[in-house]
Amino acid sequence: MYYLLYPVLYLLSLLPFWALYGLSDFIYLILGKIIKYRKDIIHENLSISFPEKSEKEIQDITKKYYHNLCDSIVETIKMISISKEELDRRMKCNWEVFDSMTTQNRNGQGYMSHQFNWEWGTLICNWHVPRRFTGLYMPLTNPAFEKLFLKIRGRAGMKLVRVQDMQKEMTAIQNDKTLWGFIADQNPSDPKRVSWNDFLNRKTAFFKGPEFIARRYDNLVYFGEIIKLKRGYYEIKMKLAFEHPKETKEGELTEAYVRFLEDSIKRQPENWVWSHRRWKHIYPENRL
Hints:
Elements: H1 2-13, H2 17-35, H3 39-49, H4 55-78, H5 84-90, E1 91-93, H6 99-103, E2 108-112, H7 118-128, E3 132-137, H8 143-153, E4 159-162, H9 166-174, E5 178-183, E6 194-199, E7 202-207, H10 209-217, E8 220-230, E9 233-242, H11 252-267
Parallel strand pairs: 1-9, 2-5, 2-8, 3-4, 3-5
Antiparallel strand pairs: 6-7, 8-9
């Protein structure tokens, strides 16, 4: 299936942006108007996260979210052939914040989230950071799409490691000059080994792994958010959040990231993925 899928998507990726966004508008009609993709999940997640908002405000966010989701689909296809120059024009970042890795000769960790378009962010990062970008990812169940995404995401030379293999490969990766990349708002598969944090009005499970690595190796820790400026144009804002994570208390780093993420989502709620079943795991004390 991959060998049929990739040539079709490659040809689509050669289309100009105006044509791709026309395709996005068509996908919006299907997903947002006809199928109403995961509408109940989106509505529940938004209503609980923003109890102060009216039903009209929730509906407005939902509509904008569907548009952003559809844009992200065609933008991900465009990644197959987009040039570095074109992506640099469309996605800005304060890359100089990573200079501390060079001046201090240390590895780092970048915490990002499912803000559109994080796929562009993973691609452009390896073209600009002073260390090899190592991205952790959750494998897809479909082998063809798994192979496709590995090819797209690895275009710029990024090393990709499955979350399940992190501990096995951790020491070897750390001994190289590396910038770890975490999409740190993933829903952990095992709720028994997580950090529970207050997030958008619910106890929410977060991975402990990123904090474990940071404190063990004293990596520089960066938090980042992606802001959608207009259709097809984004800005990544990075900040050095912890210079010496080894000196922090257990849980401090994760809690700081959760607060950072929550504040960012509240500023631009339509730009975060609401259709994921992010809260599948129930906080143990809330179980009947």
